[in-house]
Amino acid sequence: MSITFTDLFCGAGGSSTGLVEAGFELVLAINHWRTALETHAANHRLADHLLADISNFDMRRLPRTKVLWASPICTEISPAGGRRRIPHGQLSLLEDGPVSPEAFVRTRVTATDVIRAVEVHRYDAVVVENVTEFVTDWELFEWWLSGMTLLGYNHQIISASSAHLSGPGNPAAPQWRDRIYVVFTRKGIPLPDLRITPRAHCFDCGVDVDAVQSWRNGRTVGKYKAQYDYRCPHTACRHAIVEPYVRPAADIIDWSNLGTRIGERDRPLADKTMERIRRGLELFPVDPAVLTLNHGGHDGRAFAAGAVPMPVRCAKQGEGLLVPVGGTWADTAATTADPMRTRMTRETEALVAPPFVVDMRRNGTARSLDEPLTTVATARHHGLTVPGLARRIKGGEPRHTLVIPYRRAAVTTAERPFHTLSTKDSAALVAAAPAVEDCYFRMLQPHEQAAAQRFPHEYIVKGTKGERTKQAGNAVSVNAASFIGGRLSKVLS
Fold first, then answer.
1. Mean pLDDT for the stretch of residues 324-343
2. d(CA 23, CA 167)
């Protein structure tokens, strides 16, 4: 017998898609925004869909299902979208298209609506997804929790980043997205195992381990690296802090579209954006690193070129910066070797790519903008090796990698042989970031925003560019719902 579920505030369908992946059967999806509901219906064609103001809805009209998933309104307490801000500066350059007023109205499902639905239908399990502030800052949270206890439910609260939730057939989202999931099960049903144990490498033990959450200062709810860390389960290393494997942002970026060279833009970038790019290039000077971009058979981390053998790779180029624009709550650049920051409901991030273009077509060639790169090696049509930073520019020497002698030899580049080396240190390496004007810039596109939430590549998203971005920002990460659904199914089947 299948495990049926109802999805309150289904949005674009992240929660529904994840639960369906885990083997659940969607019966009804409800949302207040027509465009989001059209997106959901285009991808979940066998389910019923209801456009409704949940706060005034008679819960007796809901179908009887085993599970209820609800994502209550959270923007009042969310640091990413809670306080109204007036767009200015760089955001004025964005041409997203209109966003329907329906997307902003306060008719979404609330936490008290969850209690109303549960009182009528007594689901076997209820999952409530929200920001961590839903637990830590909402004054009525304990009151709300006691209401569910009175209705006959046990509960577990898990805190996790979408970057750390994965499993067989369920790759992680390449996004840092801290959320809490309150999982209720009716008394008498075994508690599901909801421990978060991402794979990580313990350098002290020298092996990969299933890391365990370690809370700081007695906390039990919070955000990664702020309230908790991950540690090795072994005692030999004294439970050393470890860093779980994550999926890089580069994995879902469309590298065939690098945007426009900054020095050739018709409309200059805002001063703040240019400064953020400069700071980002100083922090991440496009080191000659290798990013593993295929979806399986690897740990998802970047590593220095030449440090270890290359795994099988997809034909994608994977170096760049993600730079916030528009004076938003985040103001530092990040490398595409790491997951993206939390997706918001509007465009706030741009891709800055180093000054070269690679042709990824089969039998194609890799070329810089100025002249051919050195030989590109391929294997089985799946691998691509891109040379390091030593590259010529028009009429000049290679600009990024210099070998600086400590003695009398002349400064040279890494393309040329060393001077005669003695028994003492006699040369140094300087890797300079490319000039901002030579880099390429574009905003992240809606399909990349959706991919950062781990939506399938073929997922259909309706609406204008602005509406598609908003749907992605509001969505539940697919892998998170799939992870929880997989654990729940073991006690509900």
1. 66
2. 14
